[in-house]
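QA checklist item 7 of 12: single-chain prediction sanity check.
[x] sequence parsed
[x] length recorded as 161
[x] structure emitted
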Amino acid sequence: MSADSDTNSQTKPGAAADPTSMVAAFWAQWLEQSTRGTQALLEITQGIGDPRQTQERQQRWLETAAESFDSFLRTPPFMELMRQQLKAITDLKTMQDQMVKGAARHLGMPLADDVFGLFERLHSTEQTIIDRLQAIEERLQAIEERITAEPRGSKKRAAQD
């Protein structure tokens, strides 16, 4: 990598860069980085013989990752960003609802609130009718009790006369 940077620093700033050498330098750098990454993975995997050690390493890695994520998610900038995002989402939803309601009102279409209001009115009307019918039934029952009680009373009166 340092050899590539030395060759790049030795080229004249006004001279046009050779595309072939640029592509070759890119791939050389990529292969070098890939080799280093592969070597690091091989060093890590060489000690994987014992399943208990592997499990302990995984557990330590998961704990470290969890602590890192937790500490990141609790930072004030992240919390502020989340607050702003949630506010933006709720504002967009409010605007969308207002647009839908405006369009529906303009087109004369019913909304969920209208249907719910209609349901409530129908329900209250139904309750009023049921209450009145119950009152009528109670009055009718009282009248029937009087009618059934009167003939007995009128028979007794006739017998007394």
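[x] summary fact logged: Helices lie at 2-10, 19-46, 51-73, 76-107, 112-160.
[ ] second reviewer sign-off
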